[in-house]
Structure formats: structure tokens, C-alpha cells
Design brief:
- The chain is mostly helical.
- It has a domain of about 80 residues.
- It is about 70% helix and about 0% strand.
- Helix 7 runs antiparallel to helix 8.
- About 40% of the residues are buried.
- The N terminus is likely disordered.
Length: about 260
């Protein structure tokens, strides 16, 4: 008897999984899922990646890290950088597979070498912090720079920290300020907090308590709890008029995309 492959079984299985959804929504979801499943079964890497995300996040189907891992692996083996990064995360967190840092780093490295900014960033952070690899500031700077060059805000912020502190790179507060600004403009609350500090202390930029207050206020509104106490300290250095202006600037601030 002919054995059915996982791919051959996939389309009818997906149809069964979505029957619990509301009728109109289920019909639309079924159409989309079946199309993705069919393309995935025919070897399309992007569809295999999409199907893995569907299983990982439980989008219209029962969440399954095992199925997600299977499809990420198929797509990753074809050089799909996003799948390689996602697979690295599953190994790093032990979801769908036993936790395996060596495997995670291997997939992150593949993704990074294929130009994936998230893979480059996470590698850079690993080398910067020394977890779970041996700390290596040279490797950290290399990967963070690659991700920062792609506009990845968290990488810009981390790289800014290396320049501010002189970690394996020549200490350059003005360069740090530039990187923090790029990340803060995208909405990175850690970078917004760091800008507040730079303006308060006059590092890489002229001291400006009004700008410091504005950035601490923006960072606090975006969830950076440390910024609240910093903002309140800077507030004591401002006139009532400056406080009003700072609040207006913070309220009108919008991220740049």
C-alpha cells in the first residue's frame, strides 16, 4: 500500500482543524491556509515558512511547535533566512525540540550570514553579553554593525552602548549619540532613555535639560520604567514654562519609519 507523505495529508488535516472557527471567518481562513499548504507541499520555501509561522502562533489552527519546527526546518534547509532565525529561537527556547544552544547558534549564524537582521542582532547580543557563548566584543561589534546598517533599532542601541563605553571600539560619545538617535526615532524605548541621559550629562551632545526631559517622558510612556525617576530628577532643573514645553514635545513625538 502506498504510504501518504506528510505533505499529502496536510491539506485535509488543515481543513479539519479550522472547522471550529466562525463560518465566515473559517471559510476565508480555510481558503488562505489551503493555498499556503498546497504551495508548501510543492516545495515553495516562503510558503513553508508561512505555514510554520501559522503552526507556531496557532493562526486558525491548533498551535503546534512540533509542526512549526518541521516546516521551519524544511524552509531553513533551503536557505530561507527567516526560517533559520525562527528555528534558532525554537532551539534556544526548547519549543518543539529539546533546548540546544549549539543548534540555536548554528541556525542564528546561518540566518545572519544570509543577511537576516534579527539573526545578526541576536548573535551580536550573545557575544556582547557572553551568554550562552564566550564573550567576544569583536564579534559583537561585527554583527551589531551589520544589523544596525539595516536599520535594526535594537542593534543601533546596543552598538551605541559599545561606542559610549568604549567596548573594543574607540570610545566615541558623538557616535553613540547618533546611533541612539536613530534607534529612538524608530521607537526603541531603551535608546530613548539613553538619549535622555546623553542630553542630561552632555555626552556626545550639548547639555539640554529640556530635550532630556522630553526623551525621558517619551521613554516612560513607551514602557521604560527607569525613565520615570530620571525624568523627575531632570524636571527639578526646568522652569514651569520648560516643563510645559517638554510635555508638549513628548506628546507630539511620533516614531519615524
Amino acid at each position: 500500500m502506498k504510504r501518504l507523505s506528510h505533505c499529502n495529508l496536510l491539506v485535509p488535516v488543515l481543513s479539519l482543524l479550522i472547522t471550529c472557527l466562525p463560518a465566515g471567518y473559517a471559510q476565508q481562513q480555510e481558503t488562505n491556509l489551503v493555498k499556503i499548504a498546497e504551495k508548501a507541499s510543492k516545495g515553495d520555501a516562503e510558503s513553508q515558512f508561512s505555514l510554520a509561522v501559522i503552526y507556531r502562533d496557532g493562526i486558525g489552527v491548533a498551535k503546534s511547535y512540533t509542526d512549526a519546527t518541521n516546516w521551519f526546518t524544511v524552509a531553513a534547509s533551503k536557505g530561507h533566512a527567516g526560517a533559520q532565525y525562527a528555528l534558532g529561537l525554537l532551539y534556544f527556547k526548547g519549543r518543539g525540540v529539546p533546548r540546544d544552544y549549539a543548534a540555536a547558534i548554528n541556525w542564528f549564524t546561518m540566518a545572519a550570514n544570509n543577511g537576516d537582521a534579527e539573526g545578526q542582532y541576536i548573535l551580536g547580543q550573545m557575544y556582547l553579553t557572553g551568554q550562552p557563548v564566550t564573550q567576544d566584543f569583536t564579534e559583537a561589534e561585527k554583527w551589531l554593525q551589520k544589523a544596525a546598517d539595516q536599520g535594526y533599532a535594537d542593534a543601533q542601541n546596543s552598538l551605541g552602548g559599545m561606542y559610549e563605553k568604549g567596548m573594543k571600539v574607540t570610545r566615541a560619545p558623538s557616535k553613540a549619540f547618533e546611533l541612539y538617535q536613530k534607534a529612538a526615532d524608530q521607537g526603541c524605548c531603551d535608546a530613548q532613555h539613553n538619549l535622555g541621559l546623553m542630553y542630561e550629562e552632555g555626552l556626545g551632545v550639548a547639555t539640554n535639560y529640556l530635550e532630556s526631559y522630553k526623551w525621558f517622558t517619551v521613554a516612560a510612556a513607551n514602557g521604560k520604567s527607569d525613565s520615570v525617576s530620571c525624568r523627575d530628577l531632570v524636571l527639578k532643573k526646568l522652569t514651569p514654562e520648560q516643563i510645559t514645553e517638554g510635555q508638549r514635545l513628548a506628546r507630539e513625538w511620533k516614531p519615524k519609519r
